[in-house]
Amino acid sequence: MDIVEKLGNAGVVPVVVLDKAEDAVPTAKALLAGGVDVMEITFRTAAAADSIAAVAKECPEMVVGAGTVITLEQCEKAVECGAKFIVSPGYSDEVVAWCVENGVAITPGCVTPTEIMAAMSHGLKVVKFFPANVYGGLNAMKALSGPFGSMKFIPTGGVNGQNLGEYIAAPFIHAVGGSWLCSKGDIAAHAFDKITRLCQEARQAVLGFEVAHIGINTASDEASMDVCQGLKDAFGFEIKTGNSSNFASSAVEVMKSMYLGQNGHIAVKTNSIARAAVELEKHGFQLDESTAKYKGEKMIAVYLKQEFGGFAVHLLQK
Asked: Which Gene3D superfamilies does UniProt cross-reference here (predicted)?
């Protein structure tokens, strides 16, 4: 898995401003405890280089990058210290060309068609969109994704815990960046438990797990309709017929055969099956790739290998 893909799977890229290098490792550990394994340490302070070096050495599980990289000199210094990716607020052809030539992941700031085309000329597929709240936010990125359908964005500026879900659900968003996960004040106060909690909340918003419906296994079309009719008689649920199943309301699917799961299945919607798969694997759950359904090249549904209380679980792409 390459670095840019890791940023996408994380969903959130904390923008970390460190005034003291000794705070770098405790901050990284707080982020990791909250389920976030990427961090962008900005080159705005004198402690940046030492902070990157400390995290790279002491927290190998953290993918640390350098942000606010404006010059080639800063870029080279950051990589020398252990930065695995470079983030710049604007587009510098010199910095981008050096990173591409040296195999270093880079997401330059691009908010105009001209800048995006320049990034594409170097083979980049993900760019930073900064400041997002000034340059039109989601509406602007949606418009840009029309002519540049293969380009994904990492918006920073104006993204926070309240609107994260709205941003991350958009198909042209690769990840979001922001400092709300670990503010300078929280780092200075050593409020690492708070940083961990904010990361946990952000990860839940990124994944967007919610129950879509419950599936019940039956042996035949007739048995399926009997269950649906019973639910309609009892609760007034409308019946919708289908090829392999019938629905009683949108919340109960009644299968026409004994499909996966001893009793049936639970459908769970998510903002991203790819991100969900990475998260689930951390907890020992695997996808059953043989059950995957696709729309074009994009996976839109897949079952897990494990059952829960006699119910299979399948993920649905929102």
From this structure: Aldolase class I (3.20.20.70)
List C-alpha distances in Å: 226 to 2, 28, 172, 211, 233.
51, 56, 43, 24, 10
**How do 311-317 and 298-308 pair as beta strands?**
antiparallel
pLDDT, tens digit (0-9, with 9 covering 90-100), for 168-215: 999 999 999 999 999 999 999 999 999 999 999 999 999 999 999 999
| DSSP β-bridge partners for residue 215 | 253, 265
| Contact (Cβ atoms closer than 8 angstroms) between residue 106 and residue 95 | yes
- pLDDT, tens digit, 9 for 90 and up, residues 109-124: 999 999 999 999 999 9
For the chain, the structural domain boundaries read 3-207, 210-317
Task: Report CA-CA distances (Å) from 64 to 58, 59, 196.
Answer: 11, 9, 17
Cβ neighbours of 81 (radius 10 Å):
20
The CATH H-level superfamily of 3-207 is Aldolase class I (3.20.20.70)
Residue with tokens 């602007």: 140
**Angstrom distance (rounded) from CA 283 to CA 311:** 18
CATH number listed for the domain at residues 210-317: 3.10.180.10
Residue found by looking up tokens 């696709």 in the block: 294
Overall pTM surpassing 0.85 (yes/no):
yes
Q: How many CB atoms lie within 10 A of CB 209?
A: 14
